[in-house]
Amino acid sequence: MSNDQFGQPSDSTGIAWADLKGTLLLVKVHEAGIEMDTQFGKSSAVRADVIVLDGDDAGTEYNDTLIFPKVLQSQVKSKVGGMVLGRLGQGEAKKGQSAPWKLAPNTEADAKVAREYLAKTTDAPF
Questions:
Q1: Phi, psi of 104 (to 5 degrees)
Q2: How confident is the model over 45-99, as pLDDT tens digits?
Q3: What are 27's strand-pairing partners?
Q4: 54 φ, ψ (degrees, to nearest 5)
Q5: Which stretches within the chain are classed as H helix?
Q6: CB neighbour class for 28 (10 Å; exposed up to 12, middle 13-18, buried from 19)
């Protein structure tokens, strides 16, 4: 990353969870319980930084993004000010609904990857 004092504008497209399925994600939770109006009506979200640690998109950072999938929210919302590490997958779909996005528990190998990333990233958002 540049040492320039000016950051680039964030991409407003959000996260395409399907593109990240199976990848190791490091989530820094900033705020939970955000309520807003969306094109689908009232919705809640968690504000966080999400970093992809492996796979084709390794190193991609989604800084100050909103997490809308409900199960993902429930897995990270109690960790405001902390970090959550897990591998993105999907649970079982209920009748008439899509399979929920969720994080599988991390392994010691996953934790090693995250520790190495944090050690070499001096200007990470953490």
A1: -80, 150
A2: 999 999 999 999 999 999 999 999 999 999 999 999 999 999 999 999 999 989 9
A3: 50, 84
A4: -150, 180
A5: 70-76, 108-120
A6: buried
